[in-house]
From TrEMBL:
Species classification: Eukaryota, Viridiplantae, Streptophyta, Embryophyta, Tracheophyta
Reactions catalysed, as given in the entry: L-seryl-[protein] + ATP = O-phospho-L-seryl-[protein] + ADP + H(+); L-threonyl-[protein] + ATP = O-phospho-L-threonyl-[protein] + ADP + H(+)
Organism superkingdom: Eukaryota
Name of the protein: Receptor-like serine/threonine-protein kinase
Organism of derivation: Triticum aestivum (Wheat)
EC class (word): transferase
Length: 813
């Protein structure tokens, strides 16, 4: 009896499991007609690709809203790569997706309304499947012919092997990536009021942007290695270029930028972006508003304007003053309707020019806009050519320190802006230290009243900049005059302040203490001091370094800082100013946001591993920066502590050499070929970091620029192999033996040509062998005796030649 009961129990259990199995069918990658999925079952996908890379089904878009989409199965955030019904979500109850007996895939809302369908009805015996490429496909199984596929109807994303052609576009909100009628791939802002193209750079022609309109095929493809190729000559590469096993997508997003993503556990990592400067995108901040990146995007209303909708910047701003009425000449309007101008420096509004006037004075440009009732502002460029751009509408406003001009907004004369406009704040970009003695233009933030003598003073300042030494006398005289004459007109004061703004700035300790929040956020530390993050004038992010063990007096420190202020090169961290108050010695640097080279080369985060093209760019940029210090500057500067920790990387992974706190300045003694004399200089104590220090330090010999050459060779080799080559705690004798052994190994690599065995294996063979071999040869030559080492100028030229000769390298596989 018990045996029979046990048999019945087992039979019941088996039948129960069979029923559960039939109630929850396994997920399939191909379905026949008559299949369907209810939105209530959105946790279960409609289809999954055969390799399980992609899933298809309902994605939640709100509390009770769903889209029918395709997404990466492994992505936690389930970002859609294709959507059937963008902008028209269905209800979270009763809605369904069905593949009808007639072969039509249709999405129905709760009320039975068809929101979307594939328009493939009328044919029986069709199948719908999700391919390993992410392509949702309706096909005739008897012929294998595709009847409909999602790859022909992209939404905001392009997947590898999916083509973007002249009949397709990627769309996100008001933004679109498409092929224009001149065969060029462009980004377009198509807003409620305006439409404008913003990429490639609309200020340049097709060929200046590196494109061509001679190819009419109009097709773009993202391949599995991370390269996007377009028929208009555009070629872009993902920063993790190479591994075909990485899942990628190219997506246009709601901020108007196009990015390539690589799939990871968090959802996706950006490996390329079309626009490095977010404010280059049109329409982000709306009409009469300004876009600024500092270092996150910020919108603000132009002076005299206020937000239309506090919840939506894209609706822009509206004037707080009434527009002129009853007159055709605004300069002849009644006193209650007269206008003046407010200057916003380093700012422009793109497009909508009422005309273009060249070689005109500032006063002429100003009076012309004042007389035109339709003129809302005018732009005047500080480029010495007298270019005037009256503006009819204020769209696409942006503020950038790199912009060489100002916008002058027309506002009512009786409008009080003092309560809302920020105070004038000035940052001196300093004197460029280069061969032609040119000087960078001042960066002025904030809003100021237009000086009545604008043109006269601007040309005067430009002339003074060229004279150099005379400028210092003029500045001193101007300062004395301002301090002794209280009755001087405010417009002239603004002019003199503009001259003062071109000089290296001295900060007070209180200013820097406030800017750093009492030195609250530490960015890093080294032998020369601690670096903190700071914000000047509530807009500009800087790095503030507290120096330690500084023995110079006030006068000597001022002299050295004056030299630093003149150093200006794209591959050197810009020093904006300093503070010297008693024991407090601080330097103010530009903020470089992407950490230092060591974090990318030696960090534990594999996702930060640099691609070969990025490594070569960093090596070349570092060489150019050091060559500038050694050979081009008006003063000879030895860095003395070249190492990966002192090479900072920008958002675009451009190298910027940091930390001149250890540098020793010496009088320049040129010899016949223009190089620094090899006489050397005796420093008070050993400087630098073990593992990167030249042998002459330990031998007590006078040092010259060749110590930087030796240190650079170690960095160069570490860029190639991706790891430290010397223990920084090793004793001097052991280190020299170790470096001799490394040099012997490098000579064997050069002799055999087996560069593959040396290059960082994280690159998976994706590197340029010619460049790698050249870098190893350079590194080996830099380890020679001091007199036999090349100069940084020689190294820079050798790497540049290698870069120019092999612009599109063939990678090893």
């Amino acid at each position: 009896m018990m045996a029979r009961f046990a048999s019945l129990a087992i039979l019941y259990l088996i039948s129960h499991l069979l029923l559960r199995s039939s109630a929850a069918p396994s997920v399939q990658h191909t379905l026949g007609t008559g299949s369907s999925l209810s939105v209530e079952d959105h946790e279960r996908p409609f289809l999954v690709s055969q390799d399980a890379t992609f899933s298809c089904g309902f994605l939640q878009a709100g509390d009770n809203a769903f889209y029918f989409s395709v997404w990466f199965t492994a992505a936690k955030n389930r970002t859609a790569v294709w959507t059937a019904n963008p902008g028209a979500p269905v209800n979270g109850r009763v809605s369904s997706i069905s593949f009808s007996p007639e072969g039509q895939l249709a999405l129905a809302d709760a009320n039975g309304t068809t929101v979307w369908n594939s328009k493939t009805g009328g044919k029986r015996h069709l199948t719908v499947s999700l391919r390993d490429t992410g392509n949702l496909l309706i096909a005739d199984p008897s012929t294998g012919r595709a009847v409909w596929q999602s790859f022909d109807w992209p939404t905001d994303t392009l997947l590898p092997s999916q083509t973007l052609s002249k009949d397709k576009k990627l769309v996100a909100g008001y933004y679109a990536l498409y092929y224009d009628n001149d065969n060029v791939l462009r980004l377009l802002y198509d807003g409620p009021e305006i439409a404008s193209i913003y990429w490639p750079n609309p200020d340049h022609n097709v060929f200046d942007n590196g494109r061509t309109n001679y190819n009419s095929s109009r097709v773009g493809v993202l391949d599995h290695t991370g390269v996007f190729l377009s028929s208009d000559n555009l070629r872009v590469e993902a920063s993790d270029l190479g591994a075909a096993s990485v899942k990628r997508r190219l997506t246009i997003e709601q901020d108007g930028n196009v990015r390539i993503y690589s799939l990871n556990a968090a959802g996706g990592t950006v490996t390329w972006a079309a626009l490095k400067q977010p404010c280059s995108v049109h329409g982000l901040c709306g009409k009469n508003a300004l876009c600024e990146y500092q270092p996150s995007l910020r919108c603000s209303c132009a002076p005299g304007y206020e937000m239309v909708d506090r919840q939506d910047w894209r609706k822009g701003c509206k004037p707080t003053f009434s527009l002129p009425t009853g007159t055709t000449n605004c300069s002849e309007a009644p006193a209650s309707e007269r206008f003046t101008f407010v200057q916003v420096a380093a700012t422009d509004f793109y497009g909508y020019d009422l005309g273009f006037n060249q070689s005109v004075t500032f006063e002429y440009c100003k009076s012309m806009c004042l007389k035109m009732c339709s003129c809302a502002a005018f732009a005047y460029r500080l480029d010495g050519r007298g270019n005037c751009f009256p503006k009819g509408v204020l769209f696409n406003g942006y503020t950038s320190p790199a912009f060489p001009g100002s916008i002058y907004l027309k506002v009512r004369s009786d409008l009080n802006l003092n309560a809302t406009a920020p105070q004038l704040s000035v940052h001196a970009t300093g004197l460029a230290c280069n061969r032609n003695g040119s000087r960078t233009a001042p960066t002025i933030r904030g809003h100021v009243r237009t000086p009545s003598g604008g043109t006269k003073w601007s040309y005067f300042f430009a002339f003074a900049a060229v004279l150099g030494f005379l400028e210092l006398l003029i500045v001193a005289a101007a300062w004395w005059f301002l301090s002794s004459q209280e009755s001087i007109p405010s417009s002239l004061q603004a002019g003199y302040r503009l001259v003062m703004a071109t000089q290296f700035r001295r900060f007070t300790y209180r200013e820097l203490k406030d800017a750093t929040g009492n030195f609250n956020e530490e960015l890093g530390r080294g032998g020369s001091g601690v670096v903190y993050r700071g914000v000047l004038d509530k807009t500009t992010v800087v790095a503030v370094k507290k120096l330690t063990n500084v023995v110079q007096g006030e006068e000597e420190f001022w002299e050295e800082m004056t030299v630093f202020g003149r150093i200006n090169h794209i591959n050197l961290v810009r020093i904006w100013g300093f503070c010297s108050e008693g024991k407090h010695k601080l330097l103010v640097y530009e903020y470089v946001e992407n950490e230092s080279l060591d974090r990318h080369l030696f960090g534990k985060d594999i996702g930060k591993s640099l691609a070969w093209s990025e490594r070569f760019k960093i090596a070349l940029g570092t060489a150019r920066g050091l060559a500038y210090l050694h050979h081009e500057c008006l003063e000879w500067v030895i860095h003395c502590d070249v190492k990966p920790e002192n090479i900072l990387l920008t958002r675009d992974l451009d190298a910027k050499i940091a930390d001149f706190g250890l540098a020793k300045l010496s009088g320049r003694n040129p010899i016949g070929n223009g190089d620094v004399a090899d006489t050397g200089v005796q420093l008070s104590h050993m400087r630098g970091t073990m593992g990167y220090m030249a042998p002459e330090w330990a031998l007590g010999l006078p040092v010259d620029a060749k110590v930087d050459v030796y240190s650079y060779s170690i960095v160069l080799l570490e860029i190639v192999i991706g790891s430290r080559i010397s223990d920084q705690t090793t004793t001097d004798g052991a280190e020299r033996l170790e470096m001799w052994q490394i040099a012997q190994a490098l000579k064997q690599v050069v002799a055999s040509g087996d560069i593959m065995s040396l290059v960082d294996n994280r690159l998976n063979g994706q590197f340029n062998p010619r460049q790698a071999m050249e870098m190893v040869k350079i590194s080996l030559s830099c380890m020679e005796e001091r007199s036999n080492r090349p100069t940084m100028d020689d190294i820079s030229k050798a790497l540049t030649a290698c870069d120019d000769e092999d612009e599109h390298p063939a990678y090893l596989s």
